[in-house]
Every structure is written in C-alpha cells, then in structure tokens.
C-alpha cells in the first residue's frame, strides 16, 4: 500500500526538499502552506503524488477540520513532517509579547495541534511516524532569535515526551536539527552579515553549508523501515556545527 505523508511548509526551502524526496520515493505527499500559488506550482511540477492544502496553521481552531479532511480523502496518514516555521530577528528587549507569541504559535503550538490530530488517526492504524524539525538555536544560544529559540527548544522536548508516550502504540517520533543549510533565505541572511557568516563557517568542522537534500535524506531515513528501532532522537544534520569549537 502506498504511504501517505503530510509535510507542513512543504513548498519551499527544507520542506520542499523533503517533499521531493518523498515523491521520488513513491510516497503520496500532501503539502500544507499559506501561499496557494507556491503550493500549486510545486504540486504541478512534482505530479500526481503531490497534492496540497492551503492553511494558516497559526489558526489552531482550523487544524482538526483540516486533518479530518485529509484523512477522509486519503484514508490513512503514515508520516507527518512538522516543518512549517517562521523566524524573527530582533534584539531581545525589543521583542513584543505579540511578536513572541506569534512565533511560538506557528512554530510550537501548531506543531502540537497538528501532531495531536494526526496521532488520533495513526493510533487507529497502530502505526505511524512523526518527524519534527528543530534548529541549531535549540542546541546552543544564538543572539537575536529569542522566540524562535524558545519554540525550537520546545519542539525537542515535545519530541521526547511524544516518543515516550506513543512509541509503545506503534508511533515513532523523532526530530531533525538542521545546521546552516544553503537556502535562499539563509544565503541572503548570511551574505548580508559577513561577521555571522564567518562565525558559522569557523565553528562548522566540515567548513561548508549543508544542502537542503542533506536534511531531506535524514527525514526520509527516520520515516523509513531502516529506522524502525529509532525513536525520541534529535539528529543534528549540521556538518558538526553543534559540536564545533
């Protein structure tokens, strides 16, 4: 039976790389995002194995109906990749409660809500796999990204708690923590901040940025039978950045 996967934020950056890997591997993949134009373009490009749903996951009250709709259409959900996220780069003292809340809402609360609803479906099948996407911001301190850091650290704690509660019931839960990966967004950010770029390179033992495909391969591994005895791990895909000196 063909597997069905949901990838949130699956139309750009790391999410798109994961979507491509899944589709190439014969997995029916539903991408969720806010920008219909982007979603439609990716779905057309990748063919019939890629479908999309337009949704703002920050609106938590819409999530149960969204997952219910997907379940009705596809009968089962085998894999969930919680990749959608937003960032905010600002001095700690300048971040408003509203800004902090908005980042946490999308990056952590929505992950909880989507996972909860998908888990209900997976529990009926007695099998499933959830992969959360974290960040180097949860591995060590990075300045000016307090809300993002809080949300991603929460994701790693949630991964472990979910794994302990769900693994005995057939659902594995793992996390991938990307290092500095070459995407349009990161390239722009680093190129405009030579000091930060130098710091990133100097503490990455492999001495280069990763490719989105490196993250996609790790996500695919964790979702596959090859990882059937792996649960509750946070896997850095970072060229050694998190242990770099």
UniProtKB/TrEMBL annotation:
Q: What is the lineage of its organism?
A: Bacteria, Pseudomonadati, Bacteroidota, Sphingobacteriia, Sphingobacteriales
Query: Which organism encodes this protein?
Result: Mucilaginibacter gracilis
Q: What InterPro entries does the annotation carry? A: NAD(P)-bd_dom_sf (IPR036291), Sc_DH/Rdtase_CS (IPR020904), SDR_fam (IPR002347)
Known NCBIfam families for this protein?
Answer: PRK07231.1, PRK12826.1-2
Family statement: Belongs to the short-chain dehydrogenases/reductases (SDR) family.
Protein name, UniProt field? NAD(P)-dependent dehydrogenase (Short-subunit alcohol dehydrogenase family)
GO: which molecular function terms? oxidoreductase activity, acting on the CH-OH group of donors, NAD or NADP as acceptor
């Amino acid at each position: 039976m063909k597997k069905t996967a949901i990838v949130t934020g699956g139309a750009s950056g790391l999410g798109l790389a994961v979507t491509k890997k899944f589709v190439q591997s014969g997995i029916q993949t539903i991408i969720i995002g806010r920008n219909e134009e982007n979603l439609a373009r990716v779905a057309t490009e990748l063919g019939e194995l890629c479908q999309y749903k337009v949704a703002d996951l920050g609106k938590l009250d819409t999530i149960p109906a969204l997952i219910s709709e997907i379940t009705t259409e596809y009968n089962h959900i085998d894999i969930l990749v919680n990749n959608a996220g937003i960032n905010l780069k600002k001095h700690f003292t300048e971040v408003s409660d509203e800004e902090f809340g908005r980042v946490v809402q999308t990056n952590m609360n929505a992950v909880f809500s989507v996972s909860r609803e998908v888990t209900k479906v997976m529990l009926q099948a007695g099998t499933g796999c959830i992969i959360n996407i974290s960040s180097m911001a949860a591995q060590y301190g990075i300045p000016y990204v307090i809300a993002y850091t809080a949300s991603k650290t929460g994701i790693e704690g949630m991964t472990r708690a979910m794994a302990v509660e769900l693994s005995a019931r057939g659902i594995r839960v793992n996390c991938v923590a990307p290092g500095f990966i070459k995407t349009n967004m990161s390239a722009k950010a680093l190129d405009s901040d030579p000091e930060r770029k130098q710091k990133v390179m100097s503490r990455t033992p492999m001495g280069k940025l990763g490719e989105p495909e490196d993250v996609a391969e790790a996500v695919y591994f964790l979702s596959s039978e090859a990882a059937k005895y792996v649960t509750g791990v946070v896997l850095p895909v970072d060229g050694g950045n998190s242990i770099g000196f």
